[in-house]
Amino acid sequence: MTALKELFLIRHGEAEHLVRNLTGGWTDVPLTELGYDQARRTGRRLAGLLEGGPFEFYCSDLLRARQTAEIIAAQIGQTAVAAHPLRDINNGLAAYRTRDEARAMRKPLSKPWQDWVPYPKGESWRMVRQRVEPFMEALEGERAVIVSHYVVLAIIVQWWWGLNDERIDATSLDIEPCSLTHLRLDAYGARVIVRLNDVTHLGNSA
Hints:
The chain is of the alpha/beta class. The chain has seven helices and six strands, in the order βααβαβααβααββ. The protein is globular.
């Protein structure tokens, strides 16, 4: 059982695949200039929220997340540990392809959708859950900061609230680049979402 009492979740900043018409997933590309600016703004906001207390800091091992975490680290005074379980959903043979090329190889949606593998040699939503949830359960500290990707962060929110398959199937989340999601336990042990997909710190940069 996890010891976590507070989580700060951050999606990586704008990355080149978002502006070059490429698929995301395991396409390993750097941040854009806008992405760098978003990460700096996020780091400043996060430093105020952490208020000097101890925390663990992790990020996906993909470049766009590592770069975001490195920029944030300069603001919060702690280096992130890159963790493979936090990397984006594997898009298999669609990695580094244009969105049109990926669409041509995309497999028809099948049910249950959590077991649908969209691209050859890729992953399903459930397969990502099976690597993310054990990672979260194994965290030993009471507070953690995680920089990752849309699918992983959505799964962490679902895990935090203990959603079953039926609830997961019925819900969806917006998680924008360099948005901040804050989760914590309240005084009664209830799992609270303090903020979700918060981009107010980005100002006109988003």
